[in-house]
Amino acid sequence: MIAMIAGAATLVVGWCLFATVAVLLRGPGMDSPLGSPDKQAARLERELRQARAAEQTALTLLETRTQDFSLAITEAKSRHETLKKLLSSLQGGDTASAIVLNGSNATMLIDSTIEEGDPRQSRPDWSATDARDSAFSAPTDRLIGEQALLLDSFEVEAVQRAESARGVIRLTGVPASRVLEQSGMGGPLVPVSFSAKGVPLDSITDPFERRIYEVEARLYEAQQYEKALRSLPLGIPVQGSYRETSGFGYRSDPFGRGTAFHEGTDLAAPTGSPLVAAAPGKIIYAGVKGSYGRAVEIDHGAGFRTLYGHMNSISVKVGDTVALGQKVGTMGSTGRSTGPHLHYEIYFRGKSYDPIKFLRAGKHVH
After folding, report:
1. pTM score > 0.70 for this model?
2. Any residues with CB less than 8 A from the CB of 317 and at least 6 apart, and which?
3. Per the domain annotation, does 44 fall within a domain?
């Protein structure tokens, strides 16, 4: 870039010197034979002043263009650093901070549309000045264009991640909005990097700053959906082969006492088969629990809780923290049971949900 600027300066100064020499070398034979020496001298002085003025104008213009170019490069570097930070968040870096936008009835971002920027207007004519401006602006325009495309790709990925996580939550039968609310997200969210300025989004006039805001909002939404997803018990609670023997909902009582609502699902396997946590959580119950026999309850956070019933043995105690897939006991037939199986229940905010839907949804999580 410096070489380009220096070349332009050399071209301008060279042209001015050529014009000056041409003026001085013009002889009387080139003018009207009626011109007097005094008039010729006055004309030469006038043309020389004009040439010097043109030279000064060109140098001033060159200096202005150089300053503009320098400012554009500085701005481009600043934008590049912003994009690097955004990319870090997109790749699983620090979660973007956010606060609730007070007094707004806005909702979470859902539509996956990407707003296009205003189309660039064509100029009515083209001149040498336009050519010089283009020479200076082309590199920065190209860089800004590449940055805009990068922002678009960030937004597309963030939207896809949010839609994927939300789709998995929807498969469980639990409303995604309630999961987000329970996990602490709730309500419209604004990245601190902009809301801290105390300026509403509508008043942000800089296109790049506005796009950063929009993409950060999309990214934050994706991160919150994924955070909520980690609280869902989507893992298989039985280690090894098993079969589904009784589903969720109304059924005939296995002990012949009419019809009753079955709040879980029964998964059968040999006695002693390992039972594992379907999601990370904390043990809130471990012991004998009425008709459940030996049972374990796990609080997974965000309103989710699982219950394991009819266990043969328990390998955890109240207060223990368990990881996804960690053993909590073995399968048995204790309590009100007709044979070895796991009676498995899932609760969200105190309401029971069909565990089979969670197992099906879990197949979409890698």
Report:
1. no
2. 283, 286
3. yes
